[in-house]
Structures are given as C-alpha cells and as structure tokens.
Design a protein that fits this description.
- The structure holds two protein chains of two kinds.
- Chain A is α+β, with helices and mostly antiparallel strands.
- Chain A is built from eight helices and seven strands.
- Chain A has a five-stranded mixed β-sheet with strand order 2-1-5-3-4. A two-stranded antiparallel ribbon of chain A has the order 6-7.
- By secondary structure, chain B is of the alpha+beta class.
- Among the domains of chain B are: about 140 residues, Succinate dehydrogenase/fumarate reductase flavoprotein, catalytic domain (Flavocytochrome C3, Chain A, domain 1, Alpha-Beta Complex); about 130 residues, Fumarate reductase/succinate dehydrogenase flavoprotein-like, C-terminal domain (Methane Monooxygenase Hydroxylase, Chain G, domain 1).
- Chain B has 17 helices and 19 strands.
- In chain B, strand 7 and strand 8 form a beta hairpin.
- In chain B, helix 1 crosses helix 5, helix 3 runs parallel beside helix 6 and helix 3 packs parallel to helix 12.
- The chains are: A alpha+beta, B alpha+beta.
- Chains A and B meet through helix 1, helix 2 and helix 3 of A and helix 3, helix 5, helix 6, helix 11 and helix 12 of B.
Chain lengths: ~260, ~650
C-alpha cells in the first residue's frame, strides 16, 4: 500500500539563459511513495500552477529510461543516489518522509542553462556529427550475413551502444569531460567489423570535436558511477589506445597521398 | 472527392518494380535544386532525411526535441520483422505480406503491405551495414526470434533495445549528412502549421521552444513523420511529448484523416498506481511465453496472491482459449483483461490489474532460467512497483500503445494535399485495424529508406526550375499570425485548471468509451462529453508565463487542444464503423465466442475524414474501397 511523503525541495530556478538564477524552497506534501521522481515534480508543479506560480521546467520525455532527455542533479549527484537509474526511473520510495532534496540542472560549462533545470546539450550531437557513424548510403549494403560478426563483438558493441546520451557522465565529472560518452560511441562502432574502414579517422575526428567543448579526463571515474546504463570505464582506455594509433595511422595515410 | 490510391496495376509481385520504373525521376544534378522539409526525426523521419540528402536533395529536418536521437522510436523493445527465412522455416515475402494483412484483420491496402514485405530484407541489410549491433549466433550469423501473430521466426533484435539501436543507426546516418551540410538540422522546433499555396503544400511554420520565435520555412515538398496519437488517452506507453498536432494541423488544412478509431491497446503494461501517474510502462509481450495470467475467482478476495489456492484462481485465457492460452493476440488478451477487471476481479490496491504469474515457470525451469530470459524486465518491474516478481506475481493491465490510423496517403505516401507526404506511424497505410508486433519499426524504416525517397520524385519533377515560395508571401504571414494569435489566446484565457488537468479528463472519456470495448451508447455519450470538456477547456484552462521563453505549459496546451478535436473524430469514426475489426471492438458486433466480427459487405473500406472548416462541424467521410485479390478473407479464431 502506498504511503505519503512530505518533503522540502530546494530547486534551481533560472528564467532564461542570461538571467541570474537562485535556489527556491518548495514544500512537496502528500507525495505517494509509488510515484517517480518526475511525477513528484508534476505534483509540485500542479500545486504551483494552482497558486499562480510558474511551474518548474525540467527535462523529460519517455519516462522509461531510454530517451536520455531527463536528468537533474539530485542532492549533488547526477540522476540521484540509485545506481544505474535514470531520473525518470528513480522512485520516491527511495526517499524518507521529511527529507530535504536539492535539485539542480546538469553542471558543465558546455551545457548552458536554457531555463530552470533544462540545459543545452547540443555539443554531444556535434561529436556524433563529426564521425560517430559508419558511412553506408541507403541501398549500397550487401546481404547482412555476408559479414560475420562474432557474438562477443556484437555483445561488446551493444554494451557500449546502450548509452542514452543523457549527459550525466559530463555533469558528474569534476572536469566536465566528455570521454565516457564519446568512447561509448567509438567502441560501439570500432569494435564491429563494419566499423573498421573509418576506425582511425573516426577516433581522431570525434576526440578533436569533444575537446572543443569538454574538459580533460583525469580518471576520477565519477562518470561511470553516475551512468544510468553502466557504461564501462574500459571504453575510455580503448578510445585512448585507438587515438594514439590514429596519430600514426592517419599520418602515414596522408604521407602516401 | 475520389480517393485515388495510385496502386499500380498488374501482378502484386511486380507492382513496386513497375511503379519505380514508371514514376518520374529527377536528374542527379537537378536534385540539389529541390528543397524538402522533413518534420520529425524518428525512424521514418531520420531515415528519410538521410536518404534524401544522399540522393542530393537539400533537406531541412525538424524536431521538437533537443536532439534528434530522442524520438520515441527509441523505446521500442522487441524487434523488427523481415522475410529473410533465415531459419529455413518456410518464411517468404508472400508469407510476411499475408500475415500482416491477416493480422490487420483485412483492413489494409494489399499493394502497400506487399511492398513493405518486399523491402523488409533491405532494411536489415542497411541497418547492419550501419553498425546496428543485432543479436548474433555464436558463428557470427544473425539471430532471430518469433513474435506474436506469426508461425515463423522472423524477428531481428538487439537485446531489449531494438528501437534504440535502429534509431541510433538512422540518426547517425542523418548526422553524417548534417556534417556534410546536406541536412540542415533544426532542433527544439515544433511545427504548428502547414502552409498551402493554391491548394499545394508550400512549407511550414514552427515555434522555437527555447525562445518562442515563430518562423516560416518553405520547400518544394513537406514530409510529416511525426508519429502517432496514442497520448489522446492521456495515459499511454508513448513519451510525454508525443502528440497529434502536426498531422492534425495538416488535417485542418485539408488532409484527410484515415481510420482514426484504429488504436492498439497493448496487453502487458504496469497498471496505474495513483491519480498522479504520468505514463504507463510496457512490459515486453515475450513475458506471456512463461507467465500465466489469472485473477481470483472471488470479487471480494483480500489474500495475497500466493495464499490463494489453485481452485480459487481463474486462469481465464487458458480456460477460454485452450489452443493459444496465454499467447492469444494482443487485442484478445487486452479485451479479456478488461472483462475480468470490469467484473470486479481485478488485483492490486486499485483492483485495476491482473496477475502475470511466473511461479509455474520457476518451478519447472528454475529461477536461474527465468532470470536469464527476463532478468532485466523483472528488475525494471521491481524498480517501478517495489514488488519482487520472483516471489509475487506481476500485476499487468492493457494500455494505449500504437495508433494504426493517421493521415490518408496514396501508394506514393502523398496525402490528399499535393506535395505533403506522411511517413511512419503518422500515416495509416500498412497495419489495417491491428498492428503485429515488430512491424512498426519495419514500416517506419521502409517508408523513410526505401519508399519515400523514390516516390517523392514523382511530384518534384514537375517543379523543376521553380523556387520554393518566398517566406514573405502572404500565405506564410497569415499562418504565422494564426500561430501567434493562438499562442496569445491560450495565454489570455486565464482560467483555473492546468492543461494536464484537461488532458487527464479527456483521457478518461477516451479510455472509457473509445478504448477496448466500444458501443453505440458509449460513443454517442463520448461525443457529447468531449464537446463539453472542449468548451470548458477553452474558457477555463490556465497557462502561466509568456510566449517568449521556454514554456512547457504552453507547448502542452496546444497539443491538448488538438487532442480534444481528434478524440471527437475518433468517436465519430468508431460510431460509424458498426463492425468489429482488429483493435476496434464494437460490442454489438461479435461472434458467439466473443470474438471481433467483421462486416465485409459494408465496411471493407478505409474511412477517410474531411475537415469542414471548424471544430463544431462534423467531418465528412470518404471511402476508399479495399480489394483483396491475394489474401483470402476469413474469421480469426484462436480457440
């Protein structure tokens, strides 16, 4: 049976990208413990609207942990305290009656606030655009089974491809580094036979784009700790190894030309 | 109005090839002189944008998300069908075609479905080449599994995240074109009007969701790949932002809306826990392979599930359908769950679910085997409900999941407005009255990769040498004014209830009367109730804030307004179609066994509805008669 929680929220409110923001305290009363964290915010917002206060803007969409839209800092931790859990999958039964919860937007210089808890994450798409694909124009593909993919390779690629692009890794990192996100995409493609022809061009290009926006990695591991899909730190090592090789291979290639 | 489906004549096996030969081509060097707008970046939209750009067209892709990778195609779990016959189990293009037409209860267009089956194999090849990590056998060949409504194993998958992996594939292919400058990507942009010039689509008007800027965009052709309208039920498995606005705006401009009453209710979702619940989460249909569905026989049962003796349990699917048991098709499973819950036998705190019990399977195969098969799903269930499904049966209930209806399109995927196309779930074309599992991904990608890029050339070729209409043309200015006026109107109402309140109230009516069971009295009542709530909405809704910054209440209120009008049309369509077929179950039309009873003499047609200028004048129905030359119409039975 559902019980109800009474909570105190300290929420970052910021009217626009250039406006100053501040923490505002709200009482969240009568929150069913079966509700999700985002449903708790829905209830708070309904009450705010009733009192003619503009509702809190927060990022969300699928509410089943796959679209990567949602994500806020909850008591200083990206997606909150539960391991391997996106904000939308965090449920209020994990909190206690009387708790105070601090809610902030993702914190990273490359993710400027648009409003309240919503930030601009477009640099992540720019990293993908710079090489996060296998160039295969429609209609040119041969029969799928012509290229065998060992089961282990497919599984390992899938482990990396499970990334939902939420940005928690970057928000959790003291340096706002984009290594975990970038390396997950690189390993997804670089570990498959189909990804080999562009492998070293891809890694160089994506790493350079990443470095335009995000900080340097100093191996804290906060990213993997915060990741709702448990993307492994190993991928960063694989990326670094490929990047190093790319400096030789890509240079040798240009020398031949 | 005569609805010309433009289905090619001749044998169905050759229709697509002949059609491709006969349609007008655009010379490669001329393609760059054409500008195409694609609204939506899900499977259909992203694949269309990528392919059109590769062909050389200038593509402008629009999404209301902050990134194209967030479209709700991403949430599809199970898989994608293809007729590869890789299990040597007798599959073929013809069998996939046949199963799909039959699964849709004989309410789809044969030629479209045949083409879908034909290109299904190309999709798997294309996605594999792009690096989609499909599941593999140990030897490195592609694995696949079986799915509901088919007797062969033709479903390809990437763990339980097939939709995610396919969407990422299409998104990455599109981003490659963005990098080359061939696709111009517009994120955080919601399309709020389709703009017509002399009856033909000339462009769109969008609102920037981050700062409220309203802009016009013109093109030689406009593609709507904006998904389905399942959120008309308020609670559904759709993402929160999924809406009907893009296709509804097109409908209001003259595009016919086909079969709005064909909606799919998925049988295995986690039931609602309280009034504040915002969405329903799907639990994969595969659970029905090992779970047994039951409710207590008594309506006053209070014991825990495990304390209820066998004799007092009602395994209703196993009793009523001994041949298929717990594996009856989606619509049958859903309706039967409703029957027992309506009879007061429901389980859970709100008595709004049925048990899906794994005790027998765990006893037979061991806990480890069950964990290996469904571990991630059990974990997800526990996360949401706080209950352990290894020891306590899951509680499930049906929820709105997919909509087969949508904009009417011809064989070229063109709507009744020239130069306006609809692809993926936004159109009505391939699933008839019921969609089979693993067919939505197939159709979205078929439309975007292999159909639209060819067929769009047919209307473009006639426009060679013309420029897109200038965006300072009066038709654009007028549309921008309409958008701004509507925004202002919402902000000025100053009522007492939030947009969510009205959406919830609408959802209750739609679920009650236009849900799993429909009848004349209920549908008539729904029409008047929706009208009443629509009137109250326009007087009493409250939207705070302004139109010049990010304002999710403002985004929501426009979508709810369109859902209100759509809900009424759904009721009218359901009332008009006094037969049962697929997901549309009219209680007056059932067999002695309680199965959907079609009326082929009167309803073997597509109902396409034409807007009559305002929301208070009911739409007029046009018919497209369906011909079945290759598939034999029969009554479905799963006893």
């Amino acid at each position: 049976m559902s019980t109800e929680l009474n909570l105190t929220l300290q929420v970052w409110r910021q009217p626009g990208p250039d406006a100053p923001g501040s923490f505002v305290t709200y009482e969240a009363k009568g929150i069913p413990d079966d509700s999700s964290f985002l449903e708790m915010l829905d209830i708070v917002n309904e009450n705010l609207i009733e009192r003619d206060v503009e509702p809190i803007e927060f990022p969300h969409d699928c509410r089943e942990g796959i679209c990567g839209t949602c994500g806020v800092m909850i008591n200083g931790r990206a997606h909150g305290q539960e391991k391997a859990t996106a904000t939308c999958q965090l449920h209020m039964r994990k909190f206690n009656d009387g708790d105070t919860i601090v809610i902030e937007p993702w914190r990273a210089a490359a993710f400027p606030v648009i409003k309240d808890l919503i930030v601009d994450r477009s640099p992540m798409d720019k990293i993908i655009a710079s090489g996060g694909y296998i160039y295969a124009p429609t209609g040119t593909a041969g029969e799928a089974n012509e290229t065998l993919v060992p089961k282990e390779a497919a599984e390992s690629a899938m482990d990396a491809a499970a990334c939902i692009g939420c940005g928690a890794c970057i928000a959790a990192c003291p340096n706002s580094a984009g290594q975990l996100f970038t390396s997950a995409k690189l390993w997804h493609l670089n570990s498959l036979p189909q990804g080999q022809p562009e492998r070293f061009q891809r890694v160089e290009s994506m790493v350079h784009t990443m470095e335009q926006f995000f900080g340097a990695c100093t191996n804290h591991g906060e990213c993997a700790e915060a990741c709702p899909k448990e993307i492994s730190l190993d991928f960063i090592a694989y990326m670094n190894a490929d990047y190093m090789k790319s400096k030789i291979k890509n240079r040798a290639k240009s020398a031949q030309i | 109005m005569i609805l010309d489906s433009k289905v090619p004549s001749g044998p169905i096996q050759d229709a697509w090839d002949n059609h491709r030969f006969n349609i007008q081509l655009v010379n490669p060097s001329n393609k760059r002189r054409f500008k195409i707008i694609v609204v939506g970046t899900g499977l259909a939209g992203a694949s269309a944008s990528a392919t059109l750009a590769e062909l050389g067209y200038e593509v402008h892709a629009f999404t209301y998300h902050d990134s194209p990778r967030r479209a709700h195609s991403i949430a599809a779990q199970g898989g994608i069908n293809a007729a590869k016959n890789s299990r040597n189990d007798g599959d073929s293009v013809f069998r996939l075609f046949y199963d799909t037409v039959k699964g849709g209860d004989y309410r789809s267009r044969e030629a479209n479905v045949y083409r879908l089956a034909q290109v299904s194999n190309n999709i798997i090849d294309q996605m594999t080449a792009q690096g989609v990590p499909f599941a593999r056998e140990y030897g490195g060949l592609m694995a696949n599994r079986s799915f509901g409504g088919a007797q062969v194993s033709r479903t390809f998958y990437a763990r339980g995240q097939t939709g995610q992996q396919l969407l990422l594939g299409a998104y990455q292919q599109m981003m490659a074109q963005v990098n080359l400058g061939k696709v111009k990507l517009h994120t955080d942009q919601e399309m709020l009007e389709v703009v017509l010039k002399d009856g033909e689509a000339a462009g769109i008007v969008t609102r920037d969701l981050t700062n409220g800027q309203v802009r016009s965009h013109s093109a030689h052709a406009v593609v709507l790949a904006t998904g389905g309208y399942g959120n008309v039920f308020y609670l559904s498995t759709n993402a929160m932002a999924c809406n009907t606005t893009a296709i509804w705006r097109a409908h209001r401009k003259g595009a016919l809306f086909a079969n709005p009453c064909y909606t799919q209710i998925h049988p295995t979702c986690i039931p609602q826990a309280d009034e504040f619940q915002s969405k329903l989460t799907l639990m994969s249909e595969s659970l029905r392979n090992d779970g047994r569905i039951w409710v207590p026989r008594s309506t006053t049962e209070t014991r825990r599930a495990r304390d209820i003796p066998e004799a007092e349990r009602y395994y209703y699917l196993e009793e009523k359908y001994p041949a298929f048991g717990n594996l009856v098709p989606r619509d049958v499973a859903s309706r039967n769950a409703k029957t027992v819950v309506d009879a007061g036998q429901g389980v859970g705190p709100l008595k709004n679910g049925v048990y899906l019990d794994f005790a027998t399977a765990i006893g037979r195969d061991g806990r480890d085997a069950i964990e290996e098969r469904y571990g991630n799903l059990f974990e997800m269930y526990e996360r949401i409900t706080g209950e352990d499904p290894y020891t306590t049966p899951m509680r499930i209930y049906p929820a709105s999941h997919y909509t087969m209806g949508g904009l009417w399109v011809d064989y070229n995927l063109q709507t009744t407005i020239p130069s306006l196309y609809a692809a993926g779930e936004a159109n009505f074309s391939d699933h008839g009255a019921n969609r089979l599992g693993a067919s939505a991904l197939m159709q979205g990608l078929a439309d975007g990769y292999f159909v639209l890029p060819y067929t769009i050339g047919d209307s473009l070729s006639a426009k060679l040498g013309t420029e897109p209409l200038a965006t300072d043309d009066p038709v654009f200015k007028e549309a921008e004014k309409d958008v701004n006026d509507r925004t202002q109107r919402f902000l000025n109402i100053g009522g007492t209830k939030s947009p969510d309140y009205y959406h919830r109230e609408l959802g209750k009516i739609v679920w009650e009367h236009i849900g799993m069971g429909r009848n004349e009295a209920g549908l008539t009542q729904a029409i008047s109730e929706i009208k009443a709530i629509r009137e109250a909405f326009w007087k009493d809704v409250k939207v705070l804030g302004n139109g010049d910054s990010l304002n999710s209440s403002l985004e929501k209120v426009g979508r709810v307004a369109d859902f209100m009008e759509l809900g009424e049309l759904m009721a009218r369509d359901a009332l008009d179609r006094s037969e049962s077929c697929g997901g549309h179950f009219r209680e007056e039309s059932q067999t002695d066994e309680g199965e959907a009873l079609r009326n082929d003499d009167d309803f073997k047609h597509v109902s396409a509805w034409e807007w009559q200028g305002d929301a208070d004048t009911p739409q007029i129905k046009h018919k497209e008669e369906l011909e079945f030359e290759y598939v034999k119409l029969s009554q479905r039975s799963y006893k």
